[in-house]
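Quick illustration for those who missed Monday's session on complexes.
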Amino acid sequence: MEQKKRVFSGVRANARPHIGNYLGAMKGMLELQDKYDCIFSVVDLHTVIVPYDPQTLQAQIREVVLDFLGAGLDPHKCHLLVQSQLAGEHLELAYYLGCIYPVSRIEDLPTYKEKKATYPDYINIGLFYYPVLMAADILIYNAELVPIGIDNEPHLEVAREMARKFNAMYGTKLVEPQRYATPGGSVPSLSGEGKMSKSKGGTIILTDSLAEIKTVLAKAPTDSGHGEKFPAEGPAANLMTFVELFEGHDRAMQYKEQYKNGGIRYGELKAELAEAIYKELRPVQERRKHYEEHPEEVEDILKEGADYARGIADKTLKEVRGKMGLSKHETTN
Ligand code: TYM
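Prediction with tryptophanyl-5'AMP bound:
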């Protein structure tokens, strides 16, 4: 029987996943779980790279697991994992990958530069190791597809380069992963600044009520609502991205026409958009509730996920150690 393609993706636990994470990554996970052999993880080892609160970390991890399950990740179709359940395995491969990869390539990554600018007093080796550990997360499972947002593409390129170089040096068969893209690969912030991000305002999280969604949207910047040409960027373009994603292309085209003829009434647009976002989130919240009320089910799901993942990770590590000459008893041909 042909082996199903393997898929891996991860979400950090620094803050509650927002609709950017949902559209850019989780929607892809949902699509792929029906077809492929999927492992999806809360990446808590990536969470401790920036300042965080150890007292609340376990609760934050649990919230992301609940969001995964609420979003519709189905434990009968995919495996759910908390990365630190396999800390030894992921970190060991990360170390080996780090041994063959140039420091200068990591220093050049835009994401590394951004994080350095966000946390100028916290530029640690862990931060530097972020993309190396991410590559290990993926390569340890030989994942071919990775559902992630556009912002993570440079990290995937690092993972591919690492796989290529490692294979060339040691004769391993690490798989070069590709990004699985969704329409919401780059969701803008609702505060008008750049992309929606866990470290900035202007986010909607998966458990927000209709009233909370309305409040965030009410604060979203707008323009005059009319002009000769619909702007390609700025507040109107940002809001239209959300209309496209939650209400569809046709509705967005109608608004764009309205902009040129008579003008858009943003109060009405925002009220309608809030309803559309809530319509998508309500079933997520209902499913989530079941798992909130059954923590023992969640424990079992994570245990199964870790056991499954360990079987694959151990096999990869055994081969890698052998090829690297690190264990004479594990040499494979
Ligand atoms: P995190 O938690 O920061 O982001 C989780 C996922 O959400 C996507 N994303 C977005 N997509 C669209 N629009 C946005 N505004 C937006 N903001 C975030 C991210 O691209 C990501 O897919 N590096 C990962 C965590 C990670 C990982 C991995 C992912 C660690 N190891 C291995 C895949 C495979 C991250 O950015 O997490």
